[in-house]
Design brief:
Length: 316
Amino acid sequence: MAGFALKIKTKVGQQVVQNLTPESTIKDLKQLLSKISNIPVHKLQVLSGFPPKTLDLSGDHLSLHASGITSGDTLILEEKTIADKQENRTIINSSTTRTQTNDAQFAEQVSLPRGILMKHVVPSDNSCLFTSIFFVLNGKEDDTGTVASWMRQMIAQTIERDPENFSEAILGKSMEEYCKWIQEDTSWGGAIELSILSNYYGIEIAVADTINAIINRFGEDQNYSHRVFLLFDGIHYDPLYLEPFEGGTIQTIFPADDLILLGDAETLVKEANSSRQFTDVNKFSLKCYQCNILLSGQVQAQQHAQSTGHTQFGEI
């Protein structure tokens, strides 16, 4: 039957599937969802409704129509954890490292209503870091088109005022060159910019690095009270947000002591790494905007910059 579609949400995004019919079986559905989410069928947990409740997918030969699943439904995919043995309750997205907290604190946190940690895709326009920072601070993208330029200027001014901490050895070039370079709209932000932005806004920025499957926490040593999350795939940053199971407004700023969500981010980045959702920086294609030469990978770009003095590159 044509026109049967399901909206699928996972920790790394959402998509619409249209290759099932009302006559497809629960087994067909579980196999498809397992492939999409990279979660083994026996660990797959599917939620639907508002607030989301766990669907009973035990009848493998039951048709989707008979099970009550209809076109247009939204299904949220989770991996079963020990906590999921409790029945008839709203499931908490709670993959976490318990060694970072005591049992009392953990128990208090898992009792809170939760949601699913997802990424919001921002444009690949060389300012994705700044766009992502604005999104996590405001819950929306900049509609003025001026924030990235303002952040670049603020970063340059911060560096100019602190030559001791931003020496040529740290910057990789002279302070004058770096400050000019970072204000160009073709320049990419990175660790230096993240540390400055964390300090300026007084917030911890946790970057989920899918290449190395780790969380890099900028401002971790400053004991900031709040934390935001970004996803980094090697060349591109996207903001992460929590979509509540109950629906309503998304959340982008979190208490810095929320270890449950930090555990969710760790799980997300490991899943993204295992499914190779990152860019090999040694193979992606670049173009020098100053001489139009095409380059392959980060090493070639660095060699070209050293030999020519060109610093304006963009991914193609």
